[in-house]
Description:
CATH superfamily of the largest domain: Cytochrome c-like domain
Structural class: mainly alpha
Bound molecules: heme C
Distance between the termini: 96 Å
Helix content: 55-70%
Radius of gyration: 27 Å
Strand content: under 5%
Largest sheet: none
Number of helices: 5
Number of domains: 2
CATH architecture of the largest domain: Orthogonal Bundle
Order of helices and strands: HHHHH
Oligomer: single chain
Amino acid sequence: MTEQQQPSENSGGVPGILVIGFIVFFVVGFVALIFLVAVPQARKKTDITTLAEYPGLTNPELIAEKLNTSGCLSCHAPDIKIIGPTWEEISKRYEADPRRVNEVAINILNGGQGKWGEIPMPKQVQLTPEEAQDFAAYILQTYQKEQ
Length: 147
Ligand code: HEC
């Protein structure tokens, strides 16, 4: 009996170490994953406060196309209020003032609430600062003319 128990204890010891090894491996892996996912995410959530000077609108057609395929139109339209203000209202408020392109671009990137109502606009983390500046400039210039 003792001889039979001995090998079974030994063979139980090796998997025990393996199990601990796996647990350590997964815990370390999990912590690493959290850092890889959460840290860049947290950085993205930080509000942008300054942008480089906007060089000017160079390719309005391309920007119009991008604006129409960047998910903005589920909440915005040129002249019909959906969830957010219309492009016309926005352009009217900022009076197509090129000095305010960055102000509007920062508001696009950061999203926000309270400038137009209580419904919040989500952060647009998929946009680069340059894209946000192009969108802001395009909205302010294009829809101002049509009023
Ligand atoms: C989920 C709905 C939603 C989406 C998607 C969305 N917006 Fe908005 N947007 C809003 C709301 C709501 C407001 C008003 C926020 C406020 O009252 O401060 C707003 C405000 C704005 C403003 C006015 C900011 C200012 O300075 O007054 C601009 C410009 C704008 N959005 C552009 C965009 C662009 C460009 C996109 C796409 C890249 C976009 N939005 C996507 C809901 C949305």
